[in-house]
């Protein structure tokens, strides 16, 4: 989770205006590294999100600090990118949270990778240190070579390691996995729901996560920064909404709890009221705050009338196939247990709009109206999954053939020569780390699941040779979704 920021190609790093010198941001381009070499500059990437509170704070404080502005203007090329609009960048650096700050040498090698808000003093100090000594810092570790595997199912040792990590990461007191933020994480929940001995974990987590649903408008806040689920961060992101609908529907199927069904329905109502375009496609996110003075803590404490009187937090109205695929699939799952025809009609309508406006000639999907790069794996994956879910409830539609076409596109465009699938192929003019396309466990897991449902052994085997690598437990030990694969 993606929300296009106001990013403009400009010729220098600093502009003068009524408020004094400001950073002039550029959009990402591989060509910038050639310019960095020529001008003897480093490259700084600010990777954020439209909905991200701390991204806004950093923009308003750190990147307006005179010392920071001067350093960037003199010694850096500054790039601003939106993680929703630029999946090739966001997938590579998603473990660094938003905002993520990455500094590169002119040859495209990484010097620093920092997660979260950096106050002005710390940023200025880091920028000056890199100018004085442009060598990689401790945040940049050598990549772990991904060992090849010929296995088509996880081995016993891999299963044991993944299960132990999964069980050990569970919070016995409050539910959920992890010890920092609490949120609805679909991957461990799916595994817990599938395994009888772990189902109490899933139920406790989903019961506790009800606290993150907006009691006025519906929709789920992104996460709580307190372990007892009591301190929400108020942004509403499509991936969070759709994962929550699917997980609450799955829980309802298991336990028939009215609270679980009501939660899924409340989130679906929010999508209909706030996250749907006039023609029926789905938007991307809604901001946590109304503005820098009216934060989410203030805004979302009001009732409906009070909120509307204040105004509406910004909604990112970009329409991406990935987010639409997620939304379509979630509404279809809710339709399957409610038989609410309006849900199915909304899903069909969004599917046709994406098909008309985003489909590529050979079966895949472009991300936005105009893409900087791409195509990206996530768009074709999400739409293929959505079509299979539609086919399950509407088998007379065109859904199965569309899912197969998207799967063929994935195989043709995203297969890595060793194993697995990449987020996006490396461009011919790539440099440094960008010559090595990112392979993401989550996306490869989705490819494997898609292939199994389509009975496409060739696609499945390519994904599994990546997912069964011994390197998996070193790179991403928390991968319980691998344990759900047959």
Descriptors for this entry?
single chain; 486 residues; alpha+beta; Glutaredoxin; Glycosyltransferase; 2 domains; 4-stranded mixed sheet; 3-stranded antiparallel sheet; 11 strands; 46% helix; disordered N terminus
How many distinct domains? Answer: 2
Number of strands: 11
Element pattern in H and E:
EEHEHHEHEEHHHHEEEHHEHHEHHHHHHH
Output mean pLDDT: 93
How many helices? The count is: 19
Largest sheet: 4 strands, mixed
CATH class of the largest domain: Mainly Alpha
Strand arrangement across the biggest beta sheet? 4-3-5-6
Q: Which structural class do you get from the secondary structure elements?
A: alpha+beta
Oligomeric category: single chain
CATH topology of the largest domain: Glycosyltransferase
Question: Which runs of at least 5 residues are low in confidence (pLDDT < 50)?
Answer: 1-18
Radius of gyration: 22 Å
CATH architecture descriptor of the largest domain: Alpha/alpha barrel
Globally, the shape reads: globular
Helix content: 40-55%
Approximately how much beta-strand content do the residues carry? 5-15%
């Amino acid at each position: 989770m993606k929300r296009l920021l106001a990013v403009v190609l400009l010729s220098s790093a600093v502009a003068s205006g009524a408020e004094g010198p400001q950073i002039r941001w550029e959009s990402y381009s591989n060509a910038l590294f050639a310019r960095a070499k020529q001008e003897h500059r480093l490259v700084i990437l600010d990777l954020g999100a439209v909905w991200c509170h701390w991204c806004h704070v950093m923009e308003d404080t750190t990147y307006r600090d005179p010392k920071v502005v001067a350093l960037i203007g003199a010694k850096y090329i500054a790039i601003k990118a939106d993680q929703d609009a630029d999946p090739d960048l966001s997938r590579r650096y998603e473990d660094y949270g938003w905002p993520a700050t990455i500094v590169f040498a002119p040859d495209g090698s990484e010097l620093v990778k920092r997660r979260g808000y950096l106050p002005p003093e710390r940023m200025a100090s880091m920028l000056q240190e890199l100018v004085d000594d442009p060598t990689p810092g401790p945040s940049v570790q050598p990549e772990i070579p991904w060992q090849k595997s010929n296995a088509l199912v996880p081995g016993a040792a891999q299963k044991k390691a993944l299960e132990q990590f999964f069980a050990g990461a569970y919070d016995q007191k409050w539910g959920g996995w992890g010890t920092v933020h609490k949120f609805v994480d679909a991957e461990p929940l799916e595994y817990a729901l599938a395994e009888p001995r772990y189902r109490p974990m899933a139920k406790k987590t989903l019961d506790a996560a009800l606290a993150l649903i907006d009691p006025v408008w519906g929709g789920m806040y992104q996460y709580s920064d307190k372990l007892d689920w009591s301190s929400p961060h108020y942004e509403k992101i499509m991936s969070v909404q759709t994962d929550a609908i699917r997980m609450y529907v799955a829980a309802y199927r298991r336990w028939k709890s009215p609270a679980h069904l009501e939660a899924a329905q409340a989130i679906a109502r929010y999508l209909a009221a706030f996250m749907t375009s006039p023609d029926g496609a789905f938007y991307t996110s809604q901001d946590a705050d109304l503005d820098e003075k009216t934060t989410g803590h203030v805004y979302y404490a009001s009732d409906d009338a009070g909120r509307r009187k204040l105004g509406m937090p910004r909604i990112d109205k970009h329409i991406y196939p990935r987010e639409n695929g997620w939304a379509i699939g979630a509404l279809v799952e809710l339709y399957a247990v409610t038989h609410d025809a309006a849900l199915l009609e909304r899903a069909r309508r969004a599917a046709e709009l994406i098909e008309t406006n985003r489909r590529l000639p050979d079966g895949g999907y472009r991300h936005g109206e105009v893409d900087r790069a791409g195509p990206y794996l996530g768009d074709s994956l999400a739409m293929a999954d959505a079509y299979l879910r539609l086919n399950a409830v509407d088998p007379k539609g065109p859904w199965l053939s569309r899912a197969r076409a998207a799967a063929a596109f994935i195989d043709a465009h995203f297969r890595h020569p060793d194993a697995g699938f990449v987020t996006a192929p490396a461009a011919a003019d790539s440099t440094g780390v960008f010559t090595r396309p990112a392979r993401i466990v989550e996306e490869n897991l989705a490819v494997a699941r898609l292939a199994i449902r389509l009975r496409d052994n060739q696609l499945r085997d390519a994904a599994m040779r990546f997912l069964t690598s011994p390197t998996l437990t070193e790179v991403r030990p928390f991968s319980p979704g691998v344990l759900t694969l047959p």
